[in-house]
Amino acid sequence: MAVPNSNTVPALDQEGRSRDRKNATALRPQAQTQTIGRPRGILKPYHTAGEFRHAQIAPPVQLQDVVQHFWIVEWNVRSGARALGETLPHPNVHIVFDRHEARVAGIQSGRFTRSLEGRGAVFGIKFKAGEFRPFLKRSVSTLRNRSVPLESVYGDTARALPSQVLARADDQYKIETVSRFLIEHLPPEDCNAQRAACIVREIEFNRDILSVEHLLERTKMNKRSLQRLFCEYVGVGPKWVINRYRLHEALERLSFGAPADWTGLAHELGYFDQSHFIRDFKSIVGRSPADYARNCPAPDRQEQER
After folding, report:
1. Over the stretch 177-194, which tens digit does the pLDDT of each residue have?
2. Burial (CB count within 10 angstroms: exposed 0-12, middle 13-18, buried 19+), residue 296
């Protein structure tokens, strides 16, 4: 599906975009082991049931245009206990290595829930929004609310990759193994993928974008072209992305103490009224904002200072 180009979307930094994209001999371990930020969109704290680790690690330079980060979740739940992990969806495609298999997971419309027992680990690759379309070679919307085996995208060359990645426990080995594979399979650069990634990033970090109309003003695109770009490359519409990131914003605020002015928060996040915000929040999170805030554990001082 062809998507009209536009020279008036937010500027893209083209410098060095092609440099070393397929140089598989220089993976820059210092970049691979760089832990970045803390996970966003986690709904249910589960540390009281055992030991847990959730790390986000930056990709090597050759993959920085397409991969947002690698992520690792490890758990050791006490005998007889069970932990429930819940996260809000992001507008990103993931490759997930779990239990000796790998699957390509599309965007989930609702929250993701998983019950954790005993000891285990999952390793994943989070692609930048829009940047998986050149790998997939079809509309990313075809992956919405579903996952497919890795080899259905990369062919038989990917069949042995899960056992190779999961053969050892150390993070560095996993990252080097998948990085070499992805670098060998890098598709040609796609200006529309870059454009979609840039617009989604603008939505994520520009809190003034509260509606599709605001986004149209920023990008100078017409509504139909924007919708087509998002359907093909992101997998969901721009309104969905805006709403989800504003809900992420709400979660961040509630995690550090409930605001006294619910109406003010609703308006700040682009909702017409408080009831609309509460209804939307509850439909995705599974509880009202007030109930979520009451049940959040008190954040530690280190988290507040980040």
Report:
1. 999 999 999 999 999 999
2. middle
